[in-house]
Amino acid sequence: MGEKRKNGRTEKELADFISKRLNLTVRTGRKFLEMLLGLIREDLQKVGRSELRGLGTFAVHDRPGRDTIHPVTKLPVHIPDRKAIRYRAAKAVKELINQPPPPPPASPKAKGRRRKAVPESAVDNVASEA
């Protein structure tokens, strides 16, 4: 899991990581994560908001309906009202992801002595003497 991934960790990988870190069985780790996500879903459904200090806040947002034009048929289409979830990151998370990247590791130095650069005028003098 140390490699850089495009999409982050899956739910299963998170649960397995939790179980290893807390010395739990894999089944218990998965049950824990399943319960945590279930509680967040329940809060969103009942209260419309779920706050995880240090991570961020999930909140239900009402999107109003609108009229638009179908791109293929060019007929008017009504999109009804619906609810969407918004996520607002905590300050600590914002600061973490906005840190400058660490500098690349220094390349290993070449063995042996480095030669000094010879000025072109010296090369021209040697060529003209020959």
Task: Show the helix and strand layout.
Blueprint: H1 11-21, H2 26-46, E1 49-52, E2 56-63, E3 66-69, E4 76-79, E5 82-89, H3 91-97, H4 120-129
Antiparallel strand pairs: 1-2, 2-5, 3-4
Helix pairs in contact: 1-2
How does this structure look, described?
A hairpin with a 6-residue loop joins strand 3 and strand 4. The longest helix is centred in the first third of the chain and has 21 residues, at 26-46. The strands form two sheets. A three-stranded antiparallel beta sheet has the order 1-2-5. A two-stranded antiparallel sheet has the order 3-4. The radius of gyration is 30 Å and the shape is flat. Helix content is 38%, strand content 22%. With 130 residues, the protein is of the alpha+beta class. The chain has four helices and five strands.
Primary descriptors:
single chain; 130 residues; alpha+beta; HU Protein, Chain A; 2 domains; three-stranded antiparallel beta sheet; two-stranded antiparallel ribbon; 4 helices; 38% helix
Quickly name the level 1 CATH class of the largest domain.
Answer: Few Secondary Structures
Low-confidence stretches: none
Largest sheet: 3 strands, antiparallel
What fraction of residues sit in β-strands?
15-25%
- At the fold tier of CATH, the topology name of the largest domain is HU Protein, Chain A
CATH superfamily of the largest domain: IHF-like DNA-binding proteins
Counting DSSP H or I runs of 4 or more residues, the number of helices is 4
| Total domain modules | 2
Structural class, please?
alpha+beta
Strand order of the largest sheet: 1-2-5
**Topology pattern, helix = H, strand = E:** HHEEEEEHH
Q: Give the integer mean of the pLDDT values.
A: 86
Categorize the overall geometry.
flat
Number of distinct beta strands = 5
CATH architecture of the largest domain: Irregular
Radius of gyration: 30 Å
End-to-end span in angstroms? 65 Å
Helix content: 25-40%
